[in-house]
Specification:
Elements: E1 2-8, E2 15-19, E3 24-28, H1 35-42, E4 49-54, E5 57-58, H2 64-70, E6 71-74, H3 96-105, H4 122-134, E7 140-144, H5 152-167, E8 171-175, H6 179-185, E9 188-191, E10 201-204
Parallel strand pairs: 3-8, 3-9, 6-7, 7-8
Antiparallel strand pairs: 1-2, 1-4, 4-5, 9-10
Length: 213
């Protein structure tokens, strides 16, 4: 179980909720409601008070890099530090064959790994970033608009890959602007609303709950 207890993200009420293995939680709300801030806090990329645990191990009980290897945030606008995608996949925790399977599942070719990033479309970069996030098999996937730049056919490939992660008993927290995508993938919804003094509401999956101090 991924447990979030009284997490205090700037501009939001204290949040408490759970996500079970093999389940997807949608985080919804208007622009500026704090959806991305919440995912970054769960990934320990931004400071936030509160308690987060994964399968009984607390975020505060391990070094940040160890937590982030298990709890992976995939940004809507990912960063790149090399001129081509391939160096971003050269980790000791993954294999070339797994990388090729991932990018193939997303409609990409092995040779795309060696194309300058500046020559790739926004949609290609977005799919490569998703493959990069999955390559070393983190347990938790925090996905921020993973198909926002894709057409319907290619977005369907992304959804299939997310479904596979759920079948593999991984934990998924998803931000998506597409209601139909949320309906297909998610078991519960966490609604963030403005103004900031309005408590988030949760619908669908009964195991999750939202709380306010």
């Amino acid at each position: 179980m991924l447990k979030v207890e009284k997490l205090k993200v700037a501009g939001l009420p204290a949040l408490s909720f759970e996500v079970a293995a093999g389940e997807c939680l949608a985080v919804e709300g208007p622009s500026g409601a704090g959806k991305t801030r919440l995912l970054r806090a769960i990934a320990d990329l931004d400071p936030a008070d509160g308690y987060i645990s994964l399968e009984g191990a607390g975020r505060s009980e391990m070094p940040a890099p160890a937590w982030r290897r298990q709890v992976r945030y995939a940004a809507a606008e990912p960063g790149w530090w090399a001129s081509t995608p391939r160096p971003h996949f050269q980790s000791g925790r993954t294999t070339p064959s797994r990388v090729e399977r991932l990018i193939g599942a997303l409609g990409l070719r092995p040779e795309d790994l060696d194309v300058p990033l500046a020559e790739l479309s926004t949609g290609q970069r977005q799919r490569l970033a998703l493959a990069r996030a999955l390559a070393d098999e983190p347990k938790v996937l925090l996905l921020d608009e993973p198909a926002s730049a894709l057409d319907r056919e290619t977005a369907a490939l992304v959804e299939e890959l997310i479904q596979f992660q759920l079948l593999a008993e991984r934990y998924v927290v998803l931000i998506s602007h597409a209601p139909a995508q949320i309906a297909r993938l998610c078991h519960a919804r966490l609604q963030l609303a403005l103004p900031v003094n309005q408590a988030p509401a949760l619908s669908a999956g009964a195991r999750t709950a939202a709380a306010q101090d």
